[in-house]
Amino acid sequence: MSNEIITDLENAVEKRRNFAIISHPDAGKTTLTEKLLLYGGAIHQAGAVKARRDQRKATSDWMEMEKQRGISITSTVLQFGYDNFQINLLDTPGHQDFSEDTYRTLAAADNAVMLIDAAKGLEPQTRKLFEVCKMRELPIFTFVNKMDRPGREPLELLDEIERELGLQTYAVNWPIGIGDRFAGVYNRRDQTIHLFERREHGSREAQETVISLGDPKIEKYLPQDLYYQLKEDIELLEELGSELDLEMVHAGQMTPVFFGSAMTNFGVQLFLDAFLDYALKPIGRQSSVGIVDPTYPEFSGFVFKLQANMDPKHRDRVAFVRVCTGKFEKDMVVNHVRTGKTVRLSRPQKLFAQDRESIEEAYPGDVIGLNNPGVFAIGDTIYVGSKLEYEGIPCFSPELFAYLKNPNPSKFKQFQKGITELQEEGAVQIMYSTDDFKREPILAAVGQLQFDVVQFRMLSEYGVETQVELLPYSVARWVRNGWSAVEKAGRLFNCITVKDNWNRPVLLFKNEWNLNQIIEDHPELELSNIAPVG
Ligand code: GDP
């Protein structure tokens, strides 16, 4: 490998930043994404992402389903340039389309942006996604949104993050007033005040007025009470004393916090500039041969998401691969760890929203879409050169359970085939009753959409009309110390024992309360909400 290629690779890694946004529906993720793209010049007018989505023609049954439900099932990757950086924004499906893919996407991210509605603070979906970030020790950047609307006290919000998530906070900027009286933010990085101008929707980059804290003109711009309040707040923040500690940020122990209003573009650029300074570039990943640095010259990556049948004419599937090391080039022949075969990657795609564009090369931190005629499964490693395998992606704790029934015995074979393939692909988790007479699979999912997708695909791809019978459970725990521990524990109250696809014991509970009861009564059971990598 020539030095030139290595330098090329090092430069590419140095300039790449990759992140996912975690938030609860309605916090403003779509809006913030658009504004980030606007600054990145990837779109020229905000509103384009949504408009593009609306204009999209229904090219498949799959998209037909998306259209009918008015949602986007596809998790896409948006790549844009800003200030010499190549930024990859991994979109995590959020709303009704919440599914395991939302979690898996975080396995491909190097950083997370936690978006919070100033009036609501931490919400359930954000907390869940935070747990996954914490497990992966991802650096988390917090953006408190909708400051132009009435909201909670900033200190109270920081306190909530510290107390409930166990994350130290460091406010990089600080709001001046809120709601009707929102006047701007104080940027602690250079002691300047960025004034907020009220305007309707910010479709272009905002031109902000910036003055320094000591500037006598400040009185002209800020009402006196807000100015005094700000001075008091600044003093208080100094007294609180925490410094921005990038090591702690990178270890996922401290979160830099920003305040703004995505809808009006306010604070978005301040955020982006600071984010690029503080965020982690692609770093080494754990593998079967130890941690491999992204500048390792041979290509490797892993599959974190599969998208099925975007185009029914081709029955195509796309496997999304996170590039981890080396340079990816079109037509590359790679080794596929799980099957031991070689595969030529001839139709790589870059993804911008729904448009698929062919790519020639990609670098660590990027995501590529590969045509996948049933070869790839979630967690698969592909590599060139000496063998290595990345850690798999775990199964996340499902919260919805249902029997999937096949009322037509003559379709038994298709039914089995469908279930096996959808499970392998990671569309849904499958569990079984321990009662030998109950042969029907139990679908286990994190979002209702996964059930709909399974039924839809069972019919359209395997020709089997199925029925879903919901089960009254909402909490699952794997018993890490296995069947012998379950047997020893004897009768377990208020839960049922099932087995996952790898025949490992899983307990299902109606609620957390019942779970806590078992934890108390049976400390010998090692319960985990994440499956061992199968
Ligand atoms: P998502 O569900 O997280 O993608 O949220 P959206 O981006 O669709 O935003 C939800 C709603 O909040 C929309 O009506 C937005 O216009 C609105 N919104 C987003 N950001 C702001 C903001 O900064 N201020 C105000 N007032 N509204 C906002």
Automatic annotation (TrEMBL):
Family, per entry: Belongs to the TRAFAC class translation factor GTPase superfamily. Classic translation factor GTPase family. PrfC subfamily.
Name of the protein this chain belongs to: Peptide chain release factor 3
CDD domains assigned: RF3, RF3_II
Entry binding sites for GTP: 23-30, 91-95, 145-148
Keyword Transmembrane belongs to the record: no
Sorted UniProt keywords: Cytoplasm, GTP-binding, Nucleotide-binding, Protein biosynthesis
GO cellular component, one term: cytosol
Domain of life: Bacteria
Gene: prfC
Gene Ontology biological process terms, A to Z: regulation of translational termination
Keyword Nuclease: no
Major location category of this protein: cytoplasm
Compartments in which it is found: Cytoplasm
Organism, as annotated: Aphanothece hegewaldii CCALA 016
Record-linked Gene3D superfamilies: P-loop containing nucleotide triphosphate hydrolases, Peptide chain release factor 3, domain III, Translation factors
Annotated Tr-type G domain residues: 14-283
GO MF annotation, one: translation release factor activity, codon nonspecific
